[in-house]
Amino acid sequence: HSSNRQPAFEAEGGFAPTESFQRRAASGGRTANASAGGPRRAAWVSQTHQMPAEQPASEGIKGKRLQEIAPQPKVAYQVPRSVYGTCTMVPILADTPTVSTFIQWKVLPHLWLVVNESVQASLIYGIFLITKRVALAELDPAKCQPLSIAPLCAALWVFSVVLLSDVQESLDMAQLFLRRIPTVPTTEVLTFITSNGTLKPVGGGFSYWRKVCILVIVILPKLIMAGFFFVFG
Question: I need a surface site. Which of 18, 62, 122, 156 has the fewest CB within 10 A?
Answer without folding.
Answer: 62
